[in-house]
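re: ur question from the group chat, yeah i did fold both. here u go
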Amino acid sequence: MLTSTTFRITQDRPLNVIIVGGSISGLLTGLMLKRNGAHVTILEQTPHELEHQAAGIATGPPLAAFLAKFDRSARPFSLPTDGIHTVDRADRELGFTALDMRMNSWDALYYRLRWNFDGLASSYYPEEEEEEQQQQQQQQQPPLPLGEGARDGKAAYRSGCRLRGIQTGSGDSPVKVRFVHVRSGTETELAADLLIGADGANSAVRNMVLSPDERPKREYANYVLWRGVVPETAVSEKTRVLLEGKLSFLLLNRQYAIA
């Protein structure tokens, strides 16, 4: 990820950035750049808001440090855990590793980042908080170039925009991006100083920029993943005490479960 300590811009105007991919990695990168004064546009090909991914996320100190620097909401949105422990079928603890981690969900993190990036209101962050953030932004000075102490840049999140082409140049528009609106079929072109590909394993950006020999090779890792949710009321008191406050691994024959 780019940071203000490793990426310097010597110009008298804000950096214009296009990020292809509007999931977690694109939002993390976009929020960091916005907080450093860049004008950021995220293009996400899915025509509706990304939601209900049914994925649990365990995060550690790196994300906590990132949010401490760039997150402007004080609302709690994760559960602390003191470490990882492994158990067997008989609920016997086989080992414990102390770690500073937070248990979260994909939805909670996504909407936290969206609220910070473009002020999206949701069930996690209702409209009144969005309005408060907008009022704070209106009181700020115009954005400064990317770097420490810069004001927030402008942020736009465009859903339903599928990448069609990339053209590199020079001068005031080093990169031009062509994309199609998936609902209408119309094409649009945007110019930027920097293009970032955050569009996942099947990255369209990588496929357009890299030659076939340079693209990462993907191989099946022989994993099958199942996810289920059990109501807490359906769990025994013994199991609840065993799992509470910990990230637990149940070791089985050629498989394991995470709770």
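okk and heres the other one u asked abt
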Amino acid sequence: MSSQTPPTEVLFLGSLPLSSASEVYTKLLGALPSSLHRVPHRACATTLGWRPLPTTTVKYSLSDIKPTGYDDRALASYKTFYELRTAGTIPSGVRFQVALPSPYSVVRGFIETEYWSSIEPLYEERLLQALRHIQDSIPASDLSIQLDLPTEIAALESDQGRLEDPYFKAYFSPVKAGLFERLTRITKAVNADVQLGFHLCYGDFAHMHFVQPTDAELLVEIANTVVQTLGPIHHVTYIHMPVPKDRIDEAYFKPMANLTLKDTQLFLGLVHANDEEGTKKRIEVAQKTYSKPFGVATECGMGRTPPGELESLLGIFASVTGGSKEKAGESK
């Protein structure tokens, strides 16, 4: 590995293949007691899919859109989080992380094309209601909100001509400006003392990307725009960028030299199951281009990960974080 300091912090992006919130927290903190500053609330991912939306009427109102349920699930998990922290299982300062999809992602995934523009604002209102309920019920000092952006990445790749399937094409133009108008509205709704992170993603359906990234150039462009455009509205705590398993070449990481993240923390999703040596190599190559410290993660959430792979990933995380003795808890 590089002579630079090894990563010391781990980020889990979302759901895990475990049966309960209690199992999530005890499993992760048992394996990585000094490397976590936030823990995800999701377990049993197969029951937590995005809710289908109506497609049977032509004109919609808010009453047609059911509440998202994200708040109810999060608050149920937070109760367990609070109990385990009170018991000392979860260290003080570790935050409760809630990952949310953007309204654009949900509508694009479940609604026929002709209804996107009419339903998206209504679903956005429902999502903001859920976010308000979460923030009203959980102390800001305990909470971290993560926005997941796979559909946004797909729309931008399509706009650049790398995705020919019309399924991925945005229904508005200019695409990047339209996406950031939407993200601006969500960002404004996040309370000041709540952490805010962004998960950039190329998809993980059947462990496949919707397109293989040529390199990290588009991710760097989005990350910089997030910090420059949304950072003045709300401090961006972290940004996650994926690294495909087969990319151990410097060409993939070279655009990272252009990252301008200020004090936003970078997490690289370069940890892959059953590939400790490859993971170490990806860290080494990344450090040649990006000289600042970064944390490590998987490419995407782990809800569809087989149990054996989960054990492999936890072992690799423990190995590459160098047995950090730092206390788990609050990050900058």
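fwiw on the second one: Confidence is low (pLDDT under 50) at residues 44-50, 324-332. The CA atoms of residues 109 and 151 lie 8 Å apart. idk if thats what u expected
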